[in-house]
Design a protein that fits this description.
Chains A, B: This is Thioesterase domain-containing protein. Chains A, B: It comes from Luteolibacter pohnpeiensis. Two copies of one chain form a homodimer. Chain A is built from four helices and six strands. The first copy, chain A, is α+β, with helices and mostly antiparallel strands. Chain A has one domain: Thiol Ester Dehydrase, Chain A. The model of chain A has no long low-confidence stretch (mean pLDDT 94). At the A-B interface, helix 2, helix 3 and strand 3 of A face helix 2, helix 3 and strand 3 of B. Strand 3 of chain A pairs antiparallel with strand 3 of chain B, so a sheet runs across the interface.
Chain lengths: 148, 148
């Protein structure tokens, strides 16, 4: 997918606000209603085995959740934090790291947004997949909180 | 605590093998029988709120577990991977990031080492705490696997 102006602008926002995303070489490669995908090259993110470092995988997956919520809220000033996460590392990642935050059930997303706008604080559970060659390598499930 | 020669050598090993640890500014600050502590400055690890980025916290905590096992195994060629982790972010970290991997119960550690030496593959659950001003900010519980 060709990066659009909005994905390049979003990438610039991430690099400015979260310097580790720049050090990791994070790119925003897909933004649409059903998912958000971030990529990062293996080179700055490899481990002692030449595969992707678990810490880079967890950082990229965590960031995909944040980024999805910035887009969903349409509010870059919203304070988004992660409350907890569970990560399962099923397979090593041998090439580019590619993390996709799946859109939650539309009813759950609508409820999250409604509560955020009413109370200024809302939480939602998100799932992020890191896939390679069509197979899931890493799954993150995280609870994110948005605050105004 | 003053870094010892061995902690500086270990830090060099981490920076060479896992480039993200260099980008994060990871330092090995305490290595002893009961715990292993890694630090990283806030500057390259902050988020959009000026506190520590969740991805940096998870990466540093994950790395503390790896490093503890390299020391426990006394074998830098051992292939250590993380199988799963659960991370709880209880408080924001406003200054230096400081992750301590606690030594597991001595009987569990001995069993892990015995199985590794017998079968060339062994797993263990580790707990890593990120603390600031005497309070726990982040807790990671992870299952690590060592392979020969």
């Amino acid at each position: 997918m060709t990066p659009t102006d909005s994905s390049l602008e979003l990438q610039k926002f991430l690099h400015e606000k979260i310097p580790l995303s720049r050090a990791m070489g994070v790119q925003v490669v897909a933004v649409n209603d059903t998912e958000l995908t971030l990529c990062a090259p293996l080179e700055p993110n490899h481990n002692h085995l030449g595969t992707a470092f678990g810490g880079s995988l967890s950082a990229l997956a965590t960031l995909a959740g944040y980024t999805f919520l910035w887009i969903a809220l349409g509010d870059r000033d919203a304070h988004i934090v992660i409350r907890d996460s569970t990560i399962s590392y099923q397979k090593p990642v041998r090439g580019e790291l590619r993390a996709t935050c799946l859109a939650p059930d539309p009813k759950k997303l609508a409820k999250f947004l409604k509560i955020f706008h009413q109370k200024g604080k809302s939480r939602i559970k998100l799932t992020v997949l890191i896939e390679e060659n069509g197979e899931t390598a890493v799954t993150l499930t995280g609870t994110y909180v948005a605050l105004r």
